[in-house]
Structure prediction request, 452 residues.
Amino acid sequence: MERESFQSRIGFLLVSAGCAIGIGNVWRFPYICGEYGGGLFVLIYLLFLLIMGVPVLAMELSVGRASKKSAYLGFKKLEPEGSKWHIHGLTSIVGNYILMMFYTVVSGWMLDYFFKFIRGEFVPGMTTEQIGGVFGNMLADPVELVFWMLLEVALCFVILSAGIQSGLEKVTKIMMGALLVLIIVLGCHSLVLPGGMEGLSFLLLPSLDGINQHGWWTVISAAMNQAFFTLSVGMGSMEIFGSYIDKHHSLPGESVRIAALDTVVAIMAGLIIFPACFAYGLRPDAGPSLLFVTLPNVFMDMTGGLIWGALFFLFMTFASFSTVLAVCENIISFCMDTFNWGRKKAALINGVMVGLLSIPCALGFNIWENLTIIGNRGVLDTEDFLVSNLILPIGSLIFLLFCVSKYGWGFKNFFEEVNTGDGMKFPTWVKGYFQWILPIMLFVIIVQGLIQ
Prediction:
């Protein structure tokens, strides 16, 4: 079977960036940034994104491009004979399934909230308790949560069944284009709010407030973690897109472009949220409730708040759904490569599987709300812990060691592949950094995740 490919380079960049752009950018980044002091946190985050996130992303893409296979068969093709690196390919695909088991549910929340604003469930004059009650009532209704989750899953696999160019690439181009337009419109609106410039200063101007409150190490650690997790590397969800591209452009340059798109969306999300918070006297460090309680409260105080709220959650829907599409493409590709299934068969079987596997997470907020699994965590928090604290960081360390170790693919082979094509290239001196310093940084992230 001839391997599919992207129709254009921009398609590859937008789909890859769409995989990275998600809830971590438009939800987690703003409230983590708010908690740790704004501008200085952003600078530290950008530094770690460049020295840690981009190299690991380039490694994952290089494995995909060199092998022209999904992660499992990609490792098998490139690994030395008799070695067992390909086992991580199986772990990766399990991680993709687990991620979708809760990500489809949370993405469904975004779509649900978009329609809540369209239907007028939020009205001017609502108290904070009433707005919080809307979120609480949504979580308490298993039918509502399962419905929106299944709708997301069905839309995802119908799109992917059409193929790379006609389905994934075409829809992602439209969706990412709309997302960028929405960002600009919402950002400009926030900046012209009375007092909004104070929020802009909070986001962009370095301040020692976060350091004074939390300490240097805590802020640096938070920035390191955000820079790493924002790119979704470590479980093959980026590797698969490397397998669909040609060798015309070097992978360090492509990785920087993907990271730049990812960062632009995260920063713009902050430009939307912080000016609005400061304009209405609300705290930018409200944590996870920032999105579903604090911001609807802001929108209801605005002129035309229903429209702005609907546009914001449409933006959130596009951001989260782009990740759902990209990760599920990895799942489909694995089944096509490993079992020789056709795309439509792989989409149908996995659509049913992902839908069924996601139901426990939806029920974990209501019918199974008292169910705890790992470390007294509920269903969603357990699934998130497995992916975020184990599979992503450990998987990234494995990709790194595979690329730079003589017992894996080897630095020479990786270096030749990653620098093939026009554009930015890694210099030879990075070998020592990749072999010794970067593994230590990833190990620190793993330990921190387990301790927390």
